[in-house]
Amino acid sequence: MLIAAVFVNQSTATKNQNIYWLVCSQFSRGVYAIFGFYDKKSVNTITSFCGTLHVSFITPSFPTDGTHPFVIQMRPDLKGALLSLIEYYQWDKFAYLYDSDRGLSTLQAVLDSAAEKKWQVTAINVGNINNDKKDETYRSLFQDLELKKERRVILDCERDKVNDIVDQVITIGKHVKGYHYIIANLGFTDGDLLKIQFGGANVSGFQIVDYDDSLVSKFIERWSTLEEKEYPGAHTTTIKYTSALTYDAVQVMTEAFRNLRKQRIEISRRGNAGDCLANPAVPWGQGVEIERALKQVQVEGLSGNIKFDQNGKRINYTINIMELKTSGPRKIGYWSEVDKMVVTLTELPSGNDTSGLENKTVVVTTILESPYVMMKKNHEMLEGNERYEGYCVDLAAEIAKHCGFKYKLTIVGDGKYGARDADTKIWNGMVGELVYGKADIAIAPLTITLVREEVIDFSKPFMSLGISIMIKKPQKSKPGVFSFLDPLAYEIWMCIVFAYIGVSVVLFLVSRFSPYEWHTEEFEDGRETQSSESTNEFGIFNSLWFSLGAFMQQGCDISPRSLSGRIVGGVWWFFTLIIISSYTANLAAFLTVERMVSPIESAEDLSKQTEIAYGTLDSGSTKEFFRRSKIAVFDKMWTYMRSAEPSVFVRTTAEGVARVRKSKGKYAYLLESTMNEYIEQRKPCDTMKVGGNLDSKGYGIATPKGSSLRNAVNLAVLKLNEQGLLDKLKNKWWYDKGECGSGGGDSKVSPRDRSDGTPVNLAVLKLSEQGVLDKLKNKWWYDKGECGAKDSGSKEKTSALSLSNVAGVFYILVGGLGLAMLVALIEFCYKSRAEAKRMKVAKNAQNINPSSSQNSQNFATYKEGYNVYGIESVKI
Q1: Where are the alpha helices (DSSP H) in 172-211?
Q2: Would you say 804 is a known binding-site residue?
Q3: Domain of 178: which CATH number?
Q4: Among 349-358, 441-450, 814-823, which is the least confidently predicted range?
Q5: Which of 133, 181, 332, 644 could form a disulfide with 345 if both were Cys (CB 3.0 to 4.6 A apart)?
């Protein structure tokens, strides 16, 4: 018995005539049946040839529509199962990517159902894409689908093309939660699903080979024992569905010829052998017997129950319905012609089950970052987890103890936290290792962000933090020669000088005007007392001396006698008391507070200048925060950072810190506050954190989507926080081991109550990253406030007293001087009136009894001119 194997595709035969001669040459050799493959271009030629010559053609290729005699189709029809699955998922809008080489029968069935059920189907032919530009074409295709909001896609292609498409789906980031793909072939497990397994997207498909079947298990067991040199592909534990159909085809032919022998039917090509070269062609006389025997075969094969109808098509077959989970492909049901779609897995794993972890070594990915994970000094002499130390190392040990699993710490290969490339859309760092199944959990200073939450799950935050500014610690300012003037502002000193001069002048004037400031002094001229004269001690120089003595709190030998003069002295004493007390108090603060002049104090200061460069880590959440922020200040900073030359971004935090230290104050590094605080406590103690945090976020422990570790880790983090162990760990690695003196800071962690992966949680993260939450708070707390602008907080450094701080005492001084001048005027007027009355009385008395020389002298004095002071002369 001779059976020919023929594989026909576009590269083997591009013209029908070549196909004809290829098959005819095999027929002329005296074959009884032909086994082979066909494509869309060769199917009509082959089926026509076999029908004409009555030679049976057994093929695992796609099933054809219509009736084709002498064609035995090993591959079951997928149309019914696909339509049932679409209805099960309740799709009403989706894209259908098909390979035209497989035929259009399945697509036509989908379009017919779409017209009946009002589905919106976008059909795209991917069969004729140029191999040289296929990657670019696939990326462009899915980007166009994204613009149309098409996130449900059917891939009606074979394994190789499906793998190519999946690669580009991952490249542009369309393998995350929210997307759903159905692979419309019979080999769901044949493709490389590991790449998309942990992305978060739903992936469904069909499987004709049931690995739970005993026949399949025995075959694989025998296959794995064969020599690979003699049987290429041996030692594998899987079998492709096309290989299974090929194996079943050989089994069908063997069973058919065995049945013919049992029926004692002699099959020979010697007589009536047929002639394909004759015109017209002469069919083989016994070909009908072989066709009938083949269609009557009913056996159990690797593809399940094998039975054919009168047209040579598979009937009574079962197709398994598969879904891709984080644990791998899982059967959720099956489809058959009788029962249609039957779902057998009604409850999917919820992620809570941690059974079996005690027998599994969990791969923990982390990153070398002080003080979270560091190599021990003697790490070369140690093995495994003992080589590392740090906050996250201790945290991993506590988590493993609470969850009850063994673990292995591995350092991320590229040294990055995890970001998606803007061009390729591929995740790198620890996030990439979780997404692509290289690690089971990430315990590291990994920030919880929206884009990461879409592809991985986070635990409750184990540490709260925010973006902060690190600069090189400025040098302590050397006190100047006149630094004793610093406690008071420049304008206060000027006002004190003017006040001193003004008080002295006013004191002089009121002393001149007030009669009560004058007193009589008698003096002798030679032999006898000649005369007496009125004097005033407050000349201009004595007034200046009195004011200076009072200001210096030393006093002098003279003091005012008049009420107006004493008012001037009193308000001046009160003024000096307040000024000297304020100066002394502020001077003490200046002497005890370390004064360093910082060039910047906030993000606003950074954004308003260009002398000091500033940047972030090149791949991480800090850079993503600025890129996505809609706050004007942060957007301005992002515009500067992305266009700065040379680049202000650094590859690692250590590189950023080194750049700050070497830049002589010309570079500021934006990083998480916790790391900023830690580095500030490390030698050479030359960095410092300035300003407040730019945002509020947290570090979380990450797991792949749907991981069974998620809830157990959540509970462990909450328990550790309630027990205070998280605070102890931070104090241990930040301050107890600090090298720059004691540190402080509130390390209290307040985990937020979050529902992992829910739309609400993702929305809150997005609003927080865009600054919308801060805007809302400012709107309802401060913009609509009724008590003025919010207090931005006082600076830690001591500042000089401004004029506004002591303005009141100047007002009192001016008021007192004005009062003194008014009192002096009143005194003058009162004394003048009293003296006028006295002089009038004296004149009348002299007119009545003019006798004494003394009276004559006084009268003479009055005649010379009116003198309010009643004396002959006034010494000025």
Answers
A1: 194-197
A2: no
A3: 3.40.50.2300
A4: 349-358
A5: 332
Residue among 58, 121, 630 at smallest CA distance from 294: 58
Structural domain contains residue 263: yes
Contact residues for 836 (Cβ-Cβ < 8 A; gap 6+)? 866, 868
Go through the chain and tell me how many residues it has.
Answer: 876
User: Is 622 labeled as ligand-binding?
Assistant: yes
254 or 486: which carries more pLDDT confidence?
254
> Comparing 307-321, 416-430, 653-667, which segment has the lowest mean pLDDT?
416-430
Torsion angle of C-alpha atoms 786, 792, 794, 797, degrees rounded to 10 = -160
pTM here is 0.55
Q: What whole-number distance in Å separates Cα of residue 149 and Cα of residue 137?
A: 18
Looking from the CA of 666 toward its CB, the CA atoms found within 13 Å total: 4
Find out whether 621 is annotated in a ligand binding site.
yes
Residue 225 lies in a domain: no
**Secondary structure of the chain: what % helix, strand, coil (to 5)?**
45, 20, 40
> Could you tell me if 706 and 351 are in contact, meaning their C-beta atoms sit under 8 angstroms apart?
yes
23/372: higher pLDDT: 372
Neighbours of 759 (CB within 10 A): 9
Q: Within this chain, do residues 145 and 197 fall inside the same structural domain, yes or no?
A: yes
The owner of tokens 């098959």 is 23
Number of domains in the chain: 5
Angle at alpha carbon of residue 860, lines to 857 and 862, rounded to 5°: 115
Q: Roughly what angle, to the nearest 10 degrees, separates helices 632-643 and 621-628?
A: 120
Measured between alpha carbons, how far is 97 from 118 in angstroms, rounded to an integer?
19
SS3 278: coil
* Whole-angstrom distance, CA of residue 40 vs CA of residue 569: 116
Checking if the pLDDT of 777 tops 70, the result is yes
273-313 pLDDT, tens digit per residue, is 556 666 677 777 788 888 999 999 999 999 999 999 999 99
Over the chain, what is the mean pLDDT? Answer: 81
Return d(Cα 810, Cα 830) in angstroms, integer. 30
DSSP letter, residue 357:
G
The pLDDT of residue 862 is: 38
CA distances from 242 to 46, 142, 186, 321, 443 (A): 20, 28, 9, 18, 43
Which domain range does residue 88 map to? 79-207+318-343
Whether the pLDDT of residue 864 is over 50: the answer is: no
**592 among annotated binding-site residues:** no
Q: Tokens 């609509």 sit at which residue?
A: 784
For the beta carbon of residue 593, count every other beta carbon within 10 angstroms: 11
Radius of gyration of the chain (CA): 50
Tokens of 653: 């935090």
Task: Kindly state the percentage of the chain with pLDDT values over 70.
Answer: 83
Q: Going along 583-701, which residue ranges are E strands? A: 613-615, 667-672, 687-690, 697-699
Strands of the sheet containing 702-704, edge to edge, are: 406-411, 361-366, 441-442, 702-704, 456-458
Indicate whether 187 and 325 sit together in one domain: yes
Same domain, 582 and 617: no
Mean pLDDT to the nearest integer, 603-626: 88
Looking at the structure, tell me whether residues 36 and 182 fall in a common domain. no
Instruction: Report, as an integer, the average pLDDT of 152-160.
Output: 91
Establish if 478 belongs to a structural domain: no
Spatial neighbors of 129 by CB under 8 A, at least 6 apart, are 137, 138
Pairing of strands 687-690, 202-207: unpaired
Both 41 and 169 in one domain: the answer is no
Q: Are strands 328-336 and 318-325 parallel, antiparallel or unpaired?
A: antiparallel
Query: Among 337, 319, 289, 313, which residue's Cα sits nearest to residue 61?
Result: 313
Read off the pLDDT of each residue in 727-731 and give the average, rounded to a whole number.
90
pLDDT digits 0-9 by tens, 201-222? 899 999 999 999 999 999 988 8
Encoded amino acid at 134, one letter: K
Q: Do residues 174 and 322 share a domain?
A: yes
Q: Is there a binding annotation on residue 445?
A: yes
Among candidate residues 827, 830, 808, 831, the one with its CA nearest the CA of residue 819: 827
Determine if residue 447 is labeled as part of a ligand binding site: yes
